[in-house]
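Run log // design_07
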């Protein structure tokens, strides 16, 4: 009887090895599928009890190891062969049997910091990185296929740090200036947009005109400019300050007031081949809302993610305010008469809407 069973299993094993295995599963529990594969192939398969899922596959004269690989792949389960026994389980590093399939790989780091590279990996892969105090290497403890994939990602991420120049510009323009381009600001809907921020439908040559334009005291003024040299993935903060002259009406009298403005922006750039992806937060404070001296100063905040082409200026947004312009009117002929001409001349004020526009551009060598 023992000889018969041995002969049966030997015949089954040789048949599945030489001719391949033919099986067909439809919506079958994965444990039952592994049991059938083991019986048909005449090989022992030991699996963890927490395996779940159903299998629908069909094989014709296929190698047993290829069958196991394909059956397990949708569930991200591992398999390994030790002393002729196939072990199947989950790839979780906390699994007590994980050591049976895990391999230790050491990846040298030449350019970036090891911890920065680790944090750049998808969270599902970070658990396979062992903690060390060495910033010049990473230790991967994972099944060979996952370990090789992680090592390849690290090698591709570990490149010389790329630098770019980020330029900011803050302009003060009149509504008439925008009207000359048939532009009408409207309330925007960017992520994290403050109600006081407006979007301007400006693109192409119009933005270049704003960014490269020279200062015009009436139509366009350059309030602030600033730039920084940034590296990939690092966070930077820049603060621009300016004194903006506005008018206040107090007891019927108009007076000029110098308002300190503060523009702060925090950026985290990530450089790609053709674009720069920037996570930014900026705040602007100091401008008066309206013209009455009792009105409080207001500001605006913006949080957004933008993708910029290199060398192309981009409008982040704008904020509007009102300015009183003093003008003189009267009866032209009588107003020019000596001594009494002043009786026929008077001063009046016109309200002008102006816009503070925030621009940004990224340049690379």
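design_07 sequence
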């Amino acid at each position: 009887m023992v000889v018969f069973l041995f002969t049966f299993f030997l015949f089954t094993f040789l048949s599945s090895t030489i001719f391949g295995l033919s099986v067909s599963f439809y919506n079958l529990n994965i444990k039952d599928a592994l049991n059938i594969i083991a019986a048909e192939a005449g090989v022992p398969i030991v699996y963890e009890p927490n395996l779940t899922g159903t299998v629908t596959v069909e094989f014709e004269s296929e190698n047993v190891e290829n069958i196991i690989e394909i059956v397990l792949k949708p569930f991200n389960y591992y398999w390994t062969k030790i002393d002729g026994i196939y072990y199947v389980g989950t790839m979780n590093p906390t699994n007590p049997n994980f050591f049976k399939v895990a391999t230790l790989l050491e990846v040298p780091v030449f350019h970036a910091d090891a911890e920065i590279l680790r944090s750049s990996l998808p969270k599902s892969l970070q658990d396979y990185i062992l903690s060390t105090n060495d910033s010049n290497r990473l230790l991967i403890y994972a099944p060979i296929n996952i370990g090789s994939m992680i090592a390849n990602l690290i090698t591709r991420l570990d490149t010389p740090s790329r630098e770019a120049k980020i330029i900011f510009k803050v302009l003060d323009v009149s509504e008439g200036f925008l009207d000359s381009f048939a532009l009408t600001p409207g309330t925007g809907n960017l992520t994290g947009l403050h109600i006081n921020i407006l979007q301007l439908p400006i693109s192409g040559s119009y933005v270049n005109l704003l960014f490269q334009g020279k200062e015009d005291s009436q139509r366009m003024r350059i309030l602030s400019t600033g730039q920084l040299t940034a590296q990939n993935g690092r966070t930077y903060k820049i603060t621009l300050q300016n004194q903006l002259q506005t008018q206040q009406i107090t007891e019927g009298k108009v007076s000029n007031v110098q308002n300190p403005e503060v523009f702060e922006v925090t950026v985290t750039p990530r450089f790609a081949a053709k674009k720069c992806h920037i996570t930014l937060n900026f705040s602007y404070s100091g401008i008066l809302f309206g013209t009455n001296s009792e009105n409080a100063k207001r500001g605006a905040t913006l949080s957004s993610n933008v993708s910029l082409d290199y060398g192309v200026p981009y409008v982040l947004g704008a904020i509007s305010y009102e300015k009183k312009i003093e003008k003189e009117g009267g009866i032209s002929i009588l107003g020019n008469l000596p001594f009494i001409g002043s009786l026929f001349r008077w001063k009046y004020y016109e309200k002008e809407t102006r816009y503070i526009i925030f621009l940004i551009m990224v340049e690379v060598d």
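The two ends are 82 Å apart (CA to CA).
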